[in-house]
User: Fold this.
Amino acid sequence: MDYQFKDIEQKWQQFWADNKTFKAENTTSKPKYYVLDMFPYPSGAGLHVGHPLGYIASDIFARYKRLKGFNVLHPMGYDSFGLPAEQYAIQTGQHPSVTTEANIATYRRQLDQIGFSFDWDREVRTSSPDYYKWTQWIFMQLFNSWYNKDADKAENIAKLVEHFENKGSAGINAVSDEEVLSFSAGEWKAFNLQEQQAELLKYRLTYLRESTVNWCAALGTVLANDEVKDGFSERGGYPVEQKKMMQWSMRITAYAQRLLEGLDTIDWPEPLKEMQRNWIGKSVGASVRFPLDKTTHLSQLTTNYIEVFTTRVDTIFGVSFLVIAPEHELVAEWTTPEQKADIDAYITQTKKKSELDRMADTKTVSGAFTGSYVTNPLNGAQIPVWIADYVLAGYGTGAVMAVPSGDQRDYLFAKHFNLPIIPIIDIQNIEVEADPTKEGKYINSDFINGLSYKEATAAVVAKLEELNLGKAKVNFRMRDAIFGRQRYWGEPVPVYFKGGLPYLIEEEHLPLLLPEIDKYLPTESGEPPLGRATGWKHEHGEYELSTMPGWAGSSWYWYRYMDAHNDKEFASREAIEYWKDVDLYIGGSEHATGHLLYSRFWNKFLKDIGKVVEEEPFKKLINQGMIQGRSNFVYRLIDDEGKGTNTFVSHGLIKDHKTSPLHVDVNIVENEILNLNKFKAWREDFADAEFILENGKYICGVEVEKMSKSKFNVVNPDDLISRYGADTLRMYEMFLGPLEQSKPWNTNGIEGVFKFLRKFWKLFHDADFNFNVSNEAPTKAELKSLHKIIQKVEQDIERFSFNTSVSSFMIAVNELTDLKCNKRAILQDLVITLAPYAPHISEELWTLLGNPAGSISTAAYPKFNPAYLVEDEFSYPVSFNGKMKTNVSLSLTMEAADIEAAILANADVQKYLDGKTPKKVIVVKGRIVNIVI
RNA sequence: GCUCAGAUGGUGGAACUGGUAGACACGCAGGACUUAAAAUCCUGUUCCCGUUAAAGGAGUGCGGGUUCGAUUCCCGCUCUGAGUACCA
Assistant:
């Protein structure tokens, strides 16, 4: 029979499911290998053809690793808490769990059709109570921990309490809120429980505090920084504003340095690491205090200095003014009565500016003078204090020392408000703009005059420390991660409130189940949806009303796969010590500063508390490219009145007509040629459409856009599978181009891959499609074809170059077809090399060859023998001055010196030499010769 | 603006450490089989000139450089895509 992909694929998918062929064991003598995909959010639209790209690549790798003798863990699950299900619930009243369940069923059906080798016994769902029990448990561990900077790790909060009881707050070097109390052991003990808890909250790794958040009114929730793009929500594109709220936060900043250093130890794409580095944003500098100048008299001062952060302390003698952010907490008290009107007007003006205006308008210089002066701590110079919106409240101390000669923004500000610009380096050129050079020697700079950058920086820091007015400081751009969402469909926070302070629920009461509610909207009083739940309280107080953010469940899920059904721990010690970490993680780069950063953070924390063994969770990471949509257009003719007609103009002719483009379903277009009958049937109003054709065809226009229903450019894997089969789809997705490259989907070439699989099938069959392989010994030429592909597939998979492997398979099969090769010894090995790419057809042929069903999954990958690739005789390409001219056939047994002589004796070479003596003859081991004349 | 990635035929793309550029596939053209179509198979297909054939010339975004030899390395530029955005 001809290649019957439908029967074959159904049969083997059933076989794999029935026999649990891909079940991974947690103990075995084989070495382990963990291949992980980023688990999907099960959206209602189902999978389009772009989603499985990474899954196919990881599946090929997983299957290959099994052939190479590894015990492979290759699981799949669902990140099933999320916004879309909840919004659907708001509109329809349908419980999100019902929608989610239905979507998961669709996803599972689609995934199964592609023939993945997942171990489905280990499936996880973040929205399942068995799972989120442990997400809540990890939250509790974070709540019960603080970061000890001396030990450089997280420790149990009990240790901190013990220290407070014995020594008070002295000697504690922790990552904490800014305003912590100083107290003695006695004072600590005198605090009441309430006061103690309030103080401890400032140290906990997950904590509650009033913070400025990105509030999205349309979504009714706060968003993390990485969920906001240009002032709008990433999901839905709704406006986002800044708002102060009591919020749960995660002290990820405690791990900033380790998150940065860890990047050097992992095999990730460099651009991705760079994105994380930028996000963490380490800058090394100093904090400096500028005391209030004697000439300024203010009442009601909380502090009599302003602290700034700078990366260039060496330029401190060039400071001619100070700028603080309009939102800075000291603005009000540092404004003199005379300047109050000015300052108030300015603050009102900046408040009016939206986030977007402020970003777009970076050219205009604006600001206002507070009327106050500070003193330069090193030379006593009197320095005015200004406010301006180019200084951000959220970074550093929200105040900067302005050095117009060295910083362009300060320079423009000084020019605009006529403030002095002091040159401080001898080679500085500040005629038209600031010059931030670090070369040259300092001038106008007191005790650092004549020093170099490095010497000056050290000297200034030393002096400031001596005066107790400044110190070296490292600053990070990264902020603590907001951890609360005012939504329903997420993990409940396992906390109740007593006296306005949070307390953990008892561990034995986990999971804290998500309660049922009547509507999925905020309450009338503006509380989150959980405020509607009846009886939502602990015996000692009300439960928290916000739920955890989307990234909570995905920040540890790879551990759950190791031991997915454990109800005593998130995963057993043995399982974690066996699987350790993820060897290969494949997913999109859009998670660079979200999921991938939070996961590294939680992993480091879990390592600190001794629950996991590796510092980094994902040893190697590959970013698959995004598959874009490829839209087709038809061009509707416009009549003289400007109205659209029912006549359509072929793309090549549109310059001669007045037309308007219209998206057309890509599924009725093949190689840009519109199927006219299908077009007429596509929409009722096109039933009597007329066409202006070129060469008898209607050619459509093409554009690359995002894949979406409204653009009619969604290609569904189900359609392709029913037409060509899963093996063809798998190989075609790989054939499309390099895995890491983004590219538009184009179904045009899929026939080529389908033809290849049919030829492959035919190799094993005679003209009447009877299975027909011979037991004769293979010839040299056949062995050469086989070993070329054995080597190539191995090399390609190891370097994730799957597209070139597909080409090599085609070459090998063409060669063997030409040789009419049906030798068992060749075909048996050949089918193993193809198995990772096209598993169904391989399984079928493997059993036809007489092997036990299913045993191909763990067959040994054929051993490559280079001897088969060596030829007895080969030809040397000969070039003259680098230009190819001729080939000279030589025997392999010749010595190097003889080769040169034989080449020069060749008739063609003689002809090109034309009697001249060559200056040099270069013979390279790659069998290349260049003769320099 | 800054950071990163990329640019090769009509199209997707190959060329692993500098060594015969365009593998493989799509498309297109021609042919075989067929009453016809589908399927299959064969031949050709970077461009220019020429053409029965041969021979010749140019060519990997643009301009330079290093080298016997550059798609590959170096310098400058243009364009495209992604990330980021007053970070002191």
